[in-house]
UniProtKB/TrEMBL annotation:
Family matches, as SMART domains: HTH_LUXR
Organism: Mucilaginibacter sabulilitoris
Entries under SUPFAM superfamilies matching the protein: C-terminal effector domain of the bipartite response regulators
InterPro entries: Sig_transdc_resp-reg_C-effctor, Tscrpt_reg_LuxR_C, WH-like_DNA-bd_sf
Gene3D superfamilies in UniProt: Winged helix-like DNA-binding domain superfamily/Winged helix DNA-binding domain
Superkingdom assignment: Bacteria
Positions of transmembrane segments: none
Protein name: LuxR C-terminal-related transcriptional regulator
HTH luxR-type domain location: 13-76
């Protein structure tokens, strides 16, 4: 498995964005926002948002929100 290095020198799993659905990528683009705002922006419930977050973690092997944010930034999904 390949890894990305975050700004603190910590390795996080690298992956191809093609393993994610378009909706999961949309969630990753908004991951720095509060959950309620993400759900509102995407017109989904918070439970559905939580399901997307679980799917992202399972598919990517990212362990927590910090890794998801870091990876989203490294992949150019958020600035």
């Amino acid at each position: 498995m390949n890894y990305l290095i975050n700004s603190y020198g910590i390795q996080i799993p690298d992956f191809d964005l093609n393993i994610l659905t378009q909706r999961e990528i949309e969630v990753m683009r908004r991951v720095i926002l509060p959950g309620k705002e993400i759900a509102y922006d995407l017109n989904i419930s918070e439970n559905t948002l939580n399901s997307h977050m679980v799917n992202i973690r399972n598919k990517t092997r990212l362990m927590d929100i910090r890794q998801i944010v870091c990876c989203s930034m490294k992949k150019g999904l958020i600035n």
